[in-house]
What does this fold into?
Amino acid sequence: MNEFDVALKNLLQRQMEGGYLSILTGLQITEWLGTELDEVRSRRADLLGRTREGVLVHVELQATNDPKMALRMAEYALAICRRYKSLPVQIVLYLGEKPLRMEPELSGLGWTYRCQIVDIRDVPTENLLSSNLPEDNVLAVLTRFANQGDTIRRILGRIAAAPAETRQTLLSELTLVAGLRRLRAIIGKEIDQMPILLDLKDHNILGPTFRKGLKQGMERGLEQGLERGLEQGERRLVLRMLAQRFGELPTAVVKRLDSMSASEIESLSDRILTAATLHDLFGPI
It folds into this structure.
């Protein structure tokens, strides 16, 4: 699920004290914490936040059925407790296509552990489409809906109505996340056909490399061109996150990011919101 992680985490991390994440957890997260957890081996949580009242909230994104999910979550809980001195509220957000078959409970003689597992397809599509948050609107592409074209057009319409400075990020995130439902080609087709997005296309909202990748993927039926475009979109998304966090970026930082692999970009995105300086992320520049 690596190529989707950056977009999903970014979408959810922008929903502090509101949106689907607050509905999912029943809590209002006000602060994001470091997700690198100290243990005998390195362990990294997907999302770890804290509410105004000090309650820790751990959300793990899962695209496949893992028979050891409850065990993994219990290990996360103990590692989080070691670092932050408190046990977290934990939720597994299942994003896969296959039916959810993971057990949320782990038990033995004299003890029981249980986490909550939520299948995002069970979230009513209309609830996310009608939200005032564009991040919720994008997440609607992961729910269960009958009319693909109509739903995607509505999501694109919401993105078109979003502030101009956020549209490129939202479109990149939508296209990346849609890979979990194999809807990227349909989204590319709708972008080309929707008159409401003509002004966005005139401003290269997806970027020429990104759009070229989409076109190649659709016309040739191959993934190579699409993956190149998606990687550029992911790289551009992280650049935008860095600029929002630290302001105008030095040329050396941009060049460093251009030379990073997809896995390095994913690792970097995990640390952006908790890093105090660019030095914390890149070392000497």
User: Anything to note?
Assistant: The radius of gyration is 19 Å. The first strand starts at residue 29 and ends at 32.
